[in-house]
Design a protein that fits this description.
3-stranded parallel sheet; globular; alpha/beta
Length: about 70
């Protein structure tokens, strides 16, 4: 399983605000670090922390299984 932290996304300086991590062969998005830009991120899995941080920055996480944040 390939994983990536949120902070790594910020460091990439991605111009495109829609990011498909599945095409980059990442399986899981982790919530480490902080994110300040709004991204739409497609990934197989994401931790609850990652989902919360992406949503708080104005973005969204799209997962095939749609395991979204439970409140």
């Amino acid at each position: 399983i390939m994983m990536i932290y949120l902070q790594s996304l910020e460091n990439l300086k991605i111009l495109k605000k829609v990011l498909d991590l599945t095409t980059l062969e990442y399986d899981k998005l982790l919530g480490g670090g902080k994110i300040t830009n709004a991204y739409t991120i497609k990934v197989k899995y994401a931790s609850n922390t990652a989902q919360e941080k992406v949503k708080k920055s104005g973005g969204e996480v799209i997962m095939p299984a749609q395991r979204n944040i439970k409140k």
